[in-house]
Amino acid sequence: MTLELVALPWDRRGDIAAPHRQSFVDSMGPGIMHSLPKVATHAFGGIAYMTCIADGTTREVVQLTNQLKDAEAREYSLTRELKKLKVSLSQSMGREKDADAEVVRVASSQSKTGSAPQNRTRSDPDWALAVMPGPDPAKIFKVFGGYGVFMNEMWPQALSALSQQEREKMSDGDLTLRLKSQWEKLSGAERHAYQLWVPPGAVVELAGVPAEVPYSQTRPDDEAEASEDDSESEAIRRLDVSQREFHALQSQVGDKDSSIELLQSQLQDSKELVRIYRLRGDDLETDLKASQQRVSESQDREYLHKVECDRLKEKLAKEQAVVSDLSEKVELMSSQIQESQAAYVSAVQREEVLQEQVSRFEEKLQDATERGDVLEKGLKHVEGEREVYKGQTHVLREDLLDKQTKLRSTNKDLTMTAVDLESLKESHEGMAEDLKKSKKQYAEAALRVESLEKECQEAKAQLEIKERQAARLEVVVDELNVKLEDAILEYTEERKQAKDYAEKLHSKDSQVKKIATEATFSKDSVQRLCGDIKQFQDREAQLKDQIRSLEGEIEKWKQRLGESQGEVSELKDVNWRIAEDLQKSKVSLREVEAMVKKTTTELKSGKGRMVEAEARNIELSANVAKLMEALVQAEAREKEALELLAEGKGPEKERKKKKMQRSRTTASMEGGRTAAS
């Protein structure tokens, strides 16, 4: 029944839905809604509602776990992408370092082969070279004037700021990159101030000692030397462009580093959010387990209450059935008692009538005895005349024989009535054993009494006839008064009639005694019935006491049901709180999902930017390769020019040297101006 109630649809008030309530009542019986309190239905509805909430929470927890798994998968994919980006950045940094080494190598080769530092003087204001100490002293990094001054000042400061362990760990290239990043952070005014501090025509060493460079000035003579100078100036210009592109590439690498740091911070934030979501999911799982435990406990309590209610209802139904049976028996016994009381009253009335008749018969007997005495006295006078009337008495004897036969028949009837009375006694005994049959036996006794009354009436009629005959005989005696025989016959006749009357009176007396015994038996039976009725009344009182005690127990169970209703209301409040917490968790999960989506979109956009940066790096590396090819070609041309100069004459050599020096000075001036700008 509990499963049927739980399976039914419930409304928000905790009651069975209207279209299903009537079908439930038809299937379970019309008294189910009265026997089953509404509190129990509310409890069942609350339990069904709680089970629905528990199912919803389990589904939400499963969804949360799936979302956490998806977030972990996305996090894993993001970490893989970041690792790939780090690898690509490390490769790009390696390529940049290779490009820096190549540029340094080119500059060192120029300084060795072209002897550019020896041809520069103090009059060159926008050109400087900083010689970096390191493991390879042949590496010379070509910079512009302001940057050289900055490196000259900041290099010893940076070395002094480092500890011994940091100096051992950090290479010259890392320190150069750190100082370069500081140079890039400076504003344009600060860079211009450093540019103003550059001495003209100086090659600045790291120690800060300016190197004196001899200076000679010449002028161009012919167009061939001018074309060579133009090619050399073009190579120098390309070298400057490559240096500018290299600086731009370094700035892009710094931007990429900042974007990588931003992505790493976002990844850490996403990891923290995932950890928070996991903790929140664990809390929700613990809350769900606690709510499921509470629901199971409430279901167990509800089942125990239902079993106890069913037991009490069965007990109450049994007691009600017993009370109904007893009430029916009491009603039957009361009706039988009333009938027996009415029969007893009628028997008492009949007894009184019979006593009156007996008194009358006794008076008649006394009159007859007096008359008999008178007749005996007259008989003494007429004894001598007896034989005269013998012939007349023969006829009278025949009449007497007829009357005797009639009396025998009446005696047989009386014996039959005695048998009937004995059967009545047996029926009364059976009535004491079975109260239902007593009514029929009383009806039979009433019929027997009516038949006896009829017989008494017949006897009365016969007595009246006999009285009439006696009157006739008296008339005959009066007529035969003269004749003594008539008187003797009349005397004998009256004597016989008196005897007959005495016998009849004796028989009637015996019948009256039998009726009295039957009346006493009926009184005893009535008393027994009264005792049974008293016993039934006592039993009814006991049942009433039991019913009262059961009503007390029912009240107690009603109180317990009220307490269970309170517990159910508390469980409803707990479920409502759980539902609110779940709604809040849903909102927070939606916010987190939005944050995760946002982070994923940002990561995707960062990935796109990284792809673009890699494409730019590839393009820049291609440009660097092209520049390197151009530098190699310029070195080859420069070698050829130097060979030609070595093969030529002295004044031609001097002119070519002057032209090359002039072209280099003009190129250095142009490079310094571009660097200052």
Quick recap of the structure?
The chain is an all-alpha fold and 677 residues long. 87% of the residues lie in helices and 1% in strands.
What does this structure look like?
This protein is mainly alpha-helical. It has a domain at 382-537. 87% of the residues lie in helices and 1% in strands. It has helices at residues 2-7, 18-28, 32-35, 38-113, 116-119, 145-161, 164-169, 172-185, 188-196, 223-381, 390-433, 435-479, 484-647, 650-676; strands at residues 128-130, 141-143, 203-204, 210-211. A hairpin with a 5-residue loop joins strand 3 and strand 4 (210-211). It is rod-shaped. The protein starts with a helix and ends with a helix.
The proportion of residues in beta strands is: under 5%
Instruction: Extract low-pLDDT stretches.
Output: 1-7, 35-44, 111-144, 201-224, 667-677
Number of strands: 4
Helix-and-strand structural type: mainly alpha
What is the terminal separation in angstroms?
94 Å
Keywords: Coiled coil
